[in-house]
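Course assignment 3, question 2. Fill in each field.
Student: A.L.
Task: Predict the tertiary structure for the chain below.
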Amino acid sequence: MSNRDGLVTRRDFLATSSTVMAGTLWPMTIATGMAAESKLEPAATVAGANRPRRLAAINSIYRLRSHAYHIINRIVFGYPVDGVHHQPPFQIARMYNDQYPKDDLSRDFCPQHGIQLCKTAAETLGANGGLDVDGVLLIVEHGDYPVNEFGQVQYPRFELFQQVVEVFRKAGRSVPVFVDKHLSYDHRKAAAMIQNGRELKFGMMSGSSLPVTWRNPSIEPAIGTPFTEAVVCFGFDRGTPEIYFFHALEVLQCMLERRPGGESGVKSVTCLQGDAVWKAGDEGRWSWKLLDAAIRRNPSRNVGPIRENVLKPQALLVEYRDGTRGAVLNLIEQVADFSFAASIRGSDQPISTHFYLPPPPGAKFFDPLTFNIEKFFAAGTSPYPVERTLLTSTMLDWAMHSLHTGGKTLSDPSLDIRYTAPASSGFFRGPVAE
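Answer field:
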């Protein structure tokens, strides 16, 4: 049984072990008692400067439970790693917020912690248009922004990123940039951001916290695992489906990218809702067997028949260029958490796991995300490919267009994104409790 404390139970361990041993072909790591496979090397100072590494924070908003609140507070106050307090070797030097809602916290928080509150995004990078920080946090999630006809929140990630790039161009040098969640709601803007990074040769990191949060059981498919199909299920009914479809795609991608040859790109994307979802399952376009395996891992699963419980199912179907298939299903009345199941060539039994998200106000899944952000700023290169999030951003854009058309299957050359998966996913292992 799954366990809300993030521990691998004996039954989970034996069930997963027997699946792996039965196949004997595709090894999988089951790790406990270890927060991450590699520790962060404390790069407390910049070469030639006797000071902590300084970061610029460019946010949409800074209020309780916003993404900026969770990430920045961990850098300022620290957080537990392996049950021991970890203080990041970084300093938030300046902050810019695009919006100031009534519950804004930045006007009090910044003076208390020696952070300069700026009037423009460019100003956070240095005085008089200069560049004197060592990294940039671009955390544009939450806030009051318009939603377009495709159900996409028009967050100004691209526009704020371009202001950062302009400072880099004027300074003649650049620093690493972390972009929270997907790169942009528009795949063309997302691709332009990646191109900027390549052109100016600065490190980029982006994505969801889901790939690095705890898994139960704590499995890591080996590079080269011959996946044939996978399903992710979750439940979300607050706002446009785009918001959590992105997280589900990141779960799907961080697992399927480990198949032979790495990521080879996506052929097509289809987004369905209502009875069309069940019909697609009955026609074999996604696997009921895998959905059942994923739901059984889900600690929030409801009792009763799924077709009776779920009033408005939504499904995002992905066909990869190498023939692998993926599906993410939003099943609001059936589950609340994220879980994954996949079939592997040569094995009769699917593998499955639950991606654990400790709830607010602590939202401890920001611990592993912040830890990986620190690794990024310390090394200057992302611990996992930013191309993963370029692909999930692109899939999400076309999926929302598919949903708008009533479920047409869409293909486009922009989905042909290829990259190599990291040796380690960088997710946290072991117990969540300190």
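Instructor remarks: The domain at 53-210+364-385 is CATH 3.40.50.720 (Rossmann fold). The CA atoms of residues 10 and 161 lie 47 Å apart.
Grade: pending
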